[in-house]
Amino acid sequence: MRFLGIDLGTGSLKLATIDGDGRECATASVAYAVETPQPGWAEMRVEVWWRALIEAAARLPAQERDAVCAIGFSGQMHGVVLTAEDGSAVRSALLWPDTRAAGLLDAWPEPQPNPVAPGMAGPLLRWIVRNEPQSAAATRWALQPKDWLRAALGGVVATDPSDACATALAGTSGAWNHAQIDALGLPQEWFAPLAPSYAAGGTLSVEAARALGLREGIVLAVGAGDTPCAALGSGLAHDGDALLTTGTGGQIVVLATAVPQAARGLHAYRAATDHGYRMAAMQNVGVALEAVRGWLSYSWADAYQDAFGVDPTTTLTFLPYLTGERSPWMNPAARGGWLGLALNDSRATMMRAAFEGVAFSLRAGLDAIRANGAPVASLRLAGGGSVDARWRQLLANALEAELYALDCPNAAARGAAMLGGLASGHWHAADLAALTPAATLVASPQRDAALAARHARFIDLYRRTESWFSVSA
């Protein structure tokens, strides 16, 4: 018995199979590149996704494919796929990094239940109606990426609350905001019916089964967005369970019994289960460290060795906001750099300040979550940018939280596969806690008064520069 998870990501499609006890058995992935026909645009031809799925499925062992009895879906959030009545794509999918609708956000005046970005379905659809009337006229459904894929495999046309609530066209519960949709001049019939992420959403068609080397009639779960799927796959099952992901950017996700109250700088969305979750999303983690490493001409091994081989200076601070910032500041004009450089500073002290600055930026997001009612004392740790033990210890000290490394390299695909198991009836909600992947304590916070002082200096310097950059931008 196997459950297959399909994670339709921005840069790759990943597959993972798990057995009846939730253990990962096989994986496969195929990468692709986002298409940018014009500056600021981010698109993808759905044929690229389809070919990637067929190729990835072919890489799974035949015995794994033969054992698959249900499929679940995880997908990049936001964006939109316009489809015609016959299910064909009207145009290339528009993806979340797309900024063409940046001038159309006036329809979402603050305060909003969640921050609105130009790459969300709402602003993108507003742009389509204004600029591509021929595409709008041919559209029957405006779908999220994973919902298009499920329908292409023979499933029903539907979406789930976790994806719907991140479109800027629905409330935090995931229910469509019909008054807002009307006010934007969008057809109500474009928007798919809602169903739980773990509900059955049709079965695999004969044609799709033949293309993927699977059995026809396999149950298809409705699925969820990639962040809630990663939370599920990482074992977040109870109120207050938290996950820290560090990659190009950073995310802190904290599960909640109900959808939390809105707070500026934080996202409050529906989870893949009947929970909600708070999320702080920080843009400048791996991207900032990689930039600094390059500027200072370090290899990664030497960057870690030098940075953690010197004592940090009391006056040097690095603000990592090279691409603006989301949580908690919501300041796209924010900028970064070193402040307090002295003649006795070196590459090593500058690299160390960069690691600390990134850790402090994550702390700012976590503090916003704590202020919103979630007293986080420990976090599960995921992401390729958080492996070095010295970096983990700095993160634990800066965040004032225990860090647990997960034995779960494909969390979103695993979460999608778990949704397949729920949709087929193999598991029920009460079983989820028992499916938590193994986690090992890798860092406990140590009291460090000097680090606390440098953190206070970081916050003070950001606030001093915040207004300057906002005015200058």
Q: How would you describe this protein?
A:
Keywords: Kinase, Transferase. This protein is an alpha/beta fold and 473 residues long. The chain is 34% helix and 20% strand. It is built from 15 helices and 20 strands. Strands 1, 2, 3, 5, 9, 10 and 11 form a seven-stranded mixed β-sheet that branches. Strand 2 (12-18) and strand 3 form a beta hairpin. The termini are far apart.
How are the SSEs ordered, and which strands pair?
Layout: E1 2-8, E2 12-18, E3 24-31, E4 43-44, H1 46-59, H2 62-67, E5 68-75, E6 81-83, E7 93-94, H3 121-131, H4 133-138, E8 141-143, H5 145-152, H6 161-164, H7 178-183, E9 200-203, H8 206-212, E10 219-221, E11 224-225, H9 226-233, E12 242-246, E13 250-256, E14 267-270, E15 276-282, H10 286-295, H11 300-307, E16 317-319, E17 337-339, H12 347-371, E18 378-382, H13 389-399, E19 402-406, H14 411-423, E20 439-443, H15 449-472
Parallel strand pairs: 1-5, 5-10, 5-11, 12-18, 18-19
Antiparallel strand pairs: 1-2, 2-3, 4-7, 6-8, 9-10, 12-13, 13-15, 14-15, 16-17, 19-20
Average pLDDT for all residues: 93
For the record, give the distance between the C-alpha atoms at the N and C termini, rounded to a whole number. Answer: 57 Å
The outline comes out as globular
Which range does the strand content fall in? 15-25%
| Contiguous runs where pLDDT drops below 50 for at least 5 residues | none
Overall SS class? alpha/beta
The total count of helices amounts to 15
- The level 1 CATH classification of the largest domain is Alpha Beta
* Rg, Cα atoms, Å: 22 Å
Q: CATH H level of the largest domain: which superfamily?
A: ATPase, nucleotide binding domain
Assign the CATH architecture of the largest domain.
2-Layer Sandwich
Domain count: 2
Assign the CATH topology of the largest domain: Nucleotidyltransferase, domain 5
Which percent bin holds the helix content? 25-40%
Give me the count of strands: 20
Keywords: Kinase, Transferase
Organism: Trinickia violacea
Domain Carbohydrate kinase FGGY C-terminal: 309-423
GO molecular function: kinase activity
